[in-house]
Amino acid sequence: MRRLPSGRFQASYWHEGTRHVAGDTFGTKADALAWLSRAEADISRGSWVDPSGGKLTVAEVVAGWLEANPTKRKSSRLRDESIMRTHVLPMLGGHQLARVTRADVQRLVDGWAARSKASSVGRMFSALRAVFSFAVASELVVRSPCVGVRLPKSGLVDRPVLTAEQLQGLGEALGPDEAPMMWLGVVGGLRWAECAGLTVSALDLLAGTVLVSQQLSRDGTLGVPKSRAGVRRLAIPDWLVEDLAGLLSRRGLTGADDRVLVFVSPDGQPLHYPNWRRRTWVPACEVAGLGGLRFHDLRSMAATALVAAGVDVKTAQTRLGHSSPSLTLGIYARATAAGDRAAAEAVGQYLRGKPAAKPSAKSPSLRPARTTPPANSFAPTDQQLAAMRAVASARAATAPRTGP
Question: What pTM was estimated for this model as a whole?
Fold first, then answer.
C-alpha cells in the first residue's frame, strides 16, 4: 500500500506470482487496509477471483460464452445470438462485468416486460443468466447480478381441446398424405420437427411402433431431439399404421429406402416449417373451422388425452418425451369438461353417498313395500305349522267356556 501525491491510498497485493492492484484508490488508509483484508479472506476461503476479469466488458464475455459450447444445437445458438444482439448488448454490452449490478439487470428485465410477453422475457432472462453463470464459473466475478431479479408471471398458454369429430375434419382437410403427420402429433405427441425428421427406418409397421431419434432442423439437416428424453419408441394404433402404410405405398417406398424422409414437400425436398405452415397447415385449419390452431397444440391434446384415458404419469411422460412429469401435467395437460363432471360426481358420491330411492307412483309410502322376508326372519316348515295348529286346537278345547 502506498500514498499517492494526491493524498489518496493505493492498495495492491501479490497472488500466484502476479501483482493485483485495486481498481480504485481510497480516501483513507483504513479503507485501503479493509480492501486488502477482504482480498486475503477471499484467497483463504478459495473464493478469490482475478480482479482483472471483472474489467472485461459484457460484450466480451458474451462472445466467450457463445463459443464455449460448440455442441449446442445450431437453432439454439442462433436464438441466443439474436437475444444478445437485440435485447442485451445494446443496454449492457459496453459495461464492465464487475460493475453490472442487480439493479441494472432488473431495469433491463422491466424494460423487456413493458413490450414483450412474459414467456419471451423468461427466455431472454435465461440467456442473460447463463452468461453471468458462465462468468462466475470462469472466476471472472464472484457472484451473478441475476440472483434475486423479479420476472413477470406467465400463465399457461391457452391451448384448445378438440373433439374427435373436429380432428377427423382436420384430417380430411389435410388429405391422406398430410393427415398422418397430424395424427402422429395428436396421438403420439410428436413435435413438428420430430415428425418432419422421421425416415422410413423409424417406422416398424409390423410391430406398430415409431422410433423418434432425430428431428429436422431449420436449415434442413437432421439432428438429435431436444433432450435425451426425446429419444423414444412409441406404439401407435392399427388405423394409424394403415394410414402410414398407405402413404409409403403411394410414394413407392419400401424398407430398402430406410434413409428417405416420410414427409416431404411436393417436390420431394425436406419440409421447411414456414412454407409448410403457410401452404398446408393454415389452409386446412381454415377449411376445418379451426383457424388459429398451431401444430404444437396437438402435443397438449395428446397429454390431455393420456390423462383423461387414465394412463399412468410415467408412461405419459415417456410418450411425450418429457424430462419430468411436471412438464406433462403442469404445462401440457388440460382439464376437460367431461373429466370435470366425472370428478364432481365422484366427489359428491364420496361425501354424500348415493341418493335415496324415490318412492314409486303406485305406493305413496316413503318406505318401499317388502316383497321378500328379511334375511334374518323365521320361515316355519309344513311340519312346524301342523304342530302349531295342533297346539292351538288343544288350547281351544281345554279353555273354560264363558258363554251360555
Answer: 0.61
